[in-house]
Fold these 2 entries.
Entry 1:
Amino acid sequence: MISFTVRMKFAPEDQAAVREMLRNLGSASRQEPGCVNYVTHYVENEPNTVVIYEQYRDADALEAHRSSQHFDQYATNGLYRKVRERTSETLVEVE
């Protein structure tokens, strides 16, 4: 399983557009056969900071997600055009 978080900061004036893109991206991503978990969050007391927690069955499922039409529309040509800062962390499960 592949798990990671993505943290993004946006301008206050983009908050409504970002919220709508996150709803659409999250809804479509959770329908992907290889998506185990896809949850979007705002950071408490930081309404312009978003954290997305994602889990995929394997590398092929992650690649399918990143190649999807909804990823292109809502992430590549949506969120990524408005983001001011972006970081991600790949997570390793404790065994």
Entry 2:
Amino acid sequence: MIEKEKLEAYWKENQKLTAITLAIWFIVSFGAAIMVNALNNISIIGFPLGYYMGAQGSLIVFVLLIANYAKKMNRIDKKYGVEEEE
């Protein structure tokens, strides 16, 4: 059985990673929408940056967030000995 202190440390690290991931998600989701007028002054391949962030940029960031979360969570699982068996 895994010790209580080890499980608490695992949970704390898990919560920290989740909070950071959600903070980045929030900033990308709502930050781009709030700053759309300023972003639209910049053009990428003929499209305003605000439009680009809504159509493509935010989706790319979200996929990268998911990949990063999975990778780091696997490391945390191995660190605390709770990884899934393959």
